[in-house]
Design brief:
Elements: E1 2-8, H1 14-26, E2 32-38, H2 49-64, E3 69-79, H3 82-95, E4 98-103, H4 111-116, E5 119-122, H5 130-149
Helix pairs in contact: 1-5, 3-5
């Protein structure tokens, strides 16, 4: 199965790439975790927040085309525990060969992304910087897989 994390923002700091790479490396070959970086919409004169979010939404949804399941990450979404995430991962492994997780830009996700998503999740009640979200998400997906496998990485 393929999980594609599609995020607005390019040129992440080295620590982000190292963290993501570490957790991607730990996953088995049958779980293809990819990170697709899309450039933020230009913030030029006359570019309102709504126009910026609209452009970014178009790019995100284009990149998510073909996904069997779309999950939008938004601070107002539903939270889940690591154990619950492992249940989602098991469901994806059984039913959805391609899953897309959407991470918006500095202004968040346009309502079109939230409407297109099958689910809207929040990773935390805290506001997290977008680079950190990538590392947290990669680690939590790895943790979910270890839970599915009964591996002792996760401790209650």
């Amino acid at each position: 199965m393929r999980i594609n994390v599609i995020a607005i923002g390019t040129r992440m700091p080295g620590w982000v790439n190292e963290g993501v790479t570490e957790y991607v490396r730990r996953l088995p070959r049958h779980i293809d975790l990819q990170f697709t970086e899309l450039p933020a919409a230009p913030r030029s004169a006359g570019a309102t927040t709504a126009k910026i979010m609209h452009k970014e939404a178009a790019a995100l949804l284009r990149a998510a085309r073909g996904a069997d399941r779309i999950i939008a990450l938004d601070e107002r979404g539903t939270g889940c525990t690591s154990v619950q995430l492992s249940g989602h991962l098991q469901d994806w492994l059984n039913r959805y060969p391609q899953v897309a997780l959407l991470i918006g830009g500095a202004d968040g996700l346009d309502p079109r992304c939230l409407e297109a998503a099958h689910e809207v999740w929040s990773l935390s009640a805290l506001t997290l910087p977008h680079p950190l979200v990538r590392v947290v998400l990669a680690e939590q997906l790895y943790r979910a897989w270890t839970l599915v496998q009964g591996h002792p990485y996760h401790r209650d």
